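Intended use. Records like the one below are meant for learning the mapping from a protein sequence to its folded structure. Do not use them to infer anything beyond what is encoded.
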Amino acid sequence: MTAELMGMVAIPGGRFRMGSDTGYAEEAPTHLVEIDGFHIDTRAVTNAQFANFVAATGHVTLAEIVPDAANYPGARPEMLFAGSLVFARTRGPVDTRDWSQWWRLQPGANWRHPYGPTSSLAELDDHPVVHVAYEDALAYARWAGKDLPTEAEFEYAARGGLDGATYAWGEVFRPGGKHMANTWQGKFPHHNSREDGWEATAPVASYPPNGFGLYDMIGNVWEWTQDWFQPRHTAAASDDDGKACCIPKNPRGPVTGTLDPAAPIPQKVLKGGSFLCAPSYCQRYRPAARHAESIDTSTCHIGFRCVVRA
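Structure written out for the chain above:
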């Protein structure tokens, strides 16, 4: 096995039903997709691995750079500082439609200091790296001789061979009462009972692997994919009799990021959900779930893993 394939598994090519017609609107419609075989990291990239990349390349993440005012017209000068988004539990119930209630733009927060300038990576070497923007994840992947997965590749791998199953392990969220992924337990965003043992990220591979031998494809941290976000999947084409045809092969989403007036920074697709996904708020701990994220954004619950294609 070559060096770049160490820590990866081979995913066989095949067809699967991508998306969901019973989840959130952006997951629809369910459609058949064909994927060529590829290799994918068994685990999300860890702090230790990212530290090796930074040591070898001198890479500076976006969260460590003071934003250029020219790229953010109208932004208040006092908001233009090096930092990243950090989750903070609220003191009680809040309107969950207002994410600003629990996210704060923390000066000095970055991959080295996940909760602010006084925090560190002590005892977090085997946790997934966070506070990485899309360009940071892509830079690591290229340095490693790899790439970031497409949305279709990630979902196909996350399903672990269980085509159409609700979760990466089957139809029951907690089979036999066992936690299968790092998610939120309790009332979001003010009470986390931590029944699974973790308040925030967990060490990679803390939960059972899926059918392909992959860890944390659901929960722990959201993961970047290559695809530009679109609000719904593209339905399969139809033939003259109205039957679905032309199964997409290795789809990659829109060619460019669209500039939505409500989201002026182009957005990529995140997959997998995170430790903040909760039954009472964000039930996106499913392979079909997807989320839009601006390419300049980094947070304490976004990481990534890499692929190698034939």
